[in-house]
UniProtKB/TrEMBL annotation, chain A:
Quaternary structure (record): Homodimer.
Protein name: Glutathione S-transferase theta-4
CDD domains xrefs: GST_C_Theta, GST_N_Theta
GO cellular component, one term: cytoplasm
The enzyme's E.C. designation: 2.5.1.18
Automatic annotation (TrEMBL), chain B:
Domain of life where this protein originates: Eukaryota
UniProt source species: Myotis lucifugus (Little brown bat)
Assigned protein family: Belongs to the GST superfamily. Theta family.
Protein keywords: Cytoplasm, Transferase
UniProt domain GST N-terminal: residue ranges: 1-82
Protein name: glutathione transferase
Record-level GO BP terms: glutathione metabolic process
PROSITE patterns linked to this entry: GST_CTER (PS50405), GST_NTER (PS50404)
Amino acid sequence: MGLELYLDLLSASCRAVYIFARKNSIPFDFQFVDLLKGYHHSKEYTEINPLKKLPSLKDGKFILSESVAVLLYLCRKYSAPSYWYPPDLHTRARVDEFMAWQHTAIQLPMSKILWIKLLIPMITGEEVPAEKTEEVLAEVQQNLKLFEERFLQDRMFITGDNISLADLVALVEMMQPIGGNHNVFQASSKLAQWRMRVELSIGPSLFWEAHDRLVKLGEWDCSTLDPSVKERIVDLLQKFK
Amino acid sequence: MGLELYLDLLSQPCRAVYIFAKKNGIPFELRTVELLKGQHLSDAFVQVNPLKKVPALKDGDFTLTESVAILLYLTRKFKVPDHWYPQELQARARVDEYMAWQHTTLRKNCLRTLWYKVMFPVFLGEPVSPETLAATLAELDATLQIFEDNSFRTRALPGGPHISLADLVAITELMHPVGAGCQIFESRPKLAAWSQRVEAAVGSLLFREAHEVILKASDFPPADASVKQKLMPRVLAMIQ
């Protein structure tokens, strides 16, 4: 058994790993763990990752979680072209800085938008109060501004002339609200242009293939949702109120 | 001007950076940024870090934020012993894994514990409902359990032969609830043994020095009204 990647492309972290592996022709077995069916809570998957989160990598007996760690591991093991994680001390530090910052500044709020705009109303039948929605959107705006000012500046990509792990991770996360029909790129032409460059660098075919499940999320028949999962989501709604 | 580190040892990530630099004999100018006086919000500091957070590093014209990035930068620039960030692929991946995981889990829980248990009532004079405090402590407990159980299936953490960046980042986080008066090691012998090993590897003197501020958290004098007003919005955003 070669390299296995446990993924559901609904998750931004999974998309980053998937795109990176495919783009770099890294051979792997795609192990689909259906988040919508709650398979990440299954006994089989819990044995792979007791934290029940995606993505996970399994390389022989070695199991690794956390997309940032997985990306770095793949980069090193498969000797990906150096622009993905540039060797220059300062440039590499900038990638590390983004990869650390994004957990709370980008990934979390982008995910919240998807929950607020699509998943919560779809699953519970209730809308999240407008005030809370505005708050989250404002936070996202603020952080996108910081992203442009600190990480993008006047460059083509975060590190300069080439795509890096940072651009890949940034973009897949900023795509998350698209699942709920919310496009964060329309607020800034600079961001929209950067988005296009990253997509082109990845290759539109691979990019959109990776985002297919997300884009179709609005069509999901959530009536099949496990009642206990639905209950958990209703509780989640309370936190937003 | 050599390397400058902008730190407040009240902050967990600052402690990790401080200990790492000192332990490895990395020469730096300590620039103290007193969070409780709102110095991180000053115009001068915004020049260093527009994100208004500590730690921040300045190396000539190069500025860097995020403790994980700073630790990796120092590791590479000053060629520290291998055990901090092992060359070996899988060992290194374990350290990366922990440093990624902790942002939204242990970091968040430890921060909330300190603020809800001590800083809000004592420093900011804001009451905290017993339900909020109980929920926060329960979450901390759950996360500590995950931390202990998984040890990140790691050999870099509890059980690993040598201290790594992951251990350092973890221990400095855990000292936050300790500073808040939580006896987190009491019912967790495995965790306690690991923490003693990490402290010994750092060196007791340096460890104590780095944690002097947090261990006195309950004694901070209450903030005056203007400071409180200045700090409140960011504090609320931080602990969300």
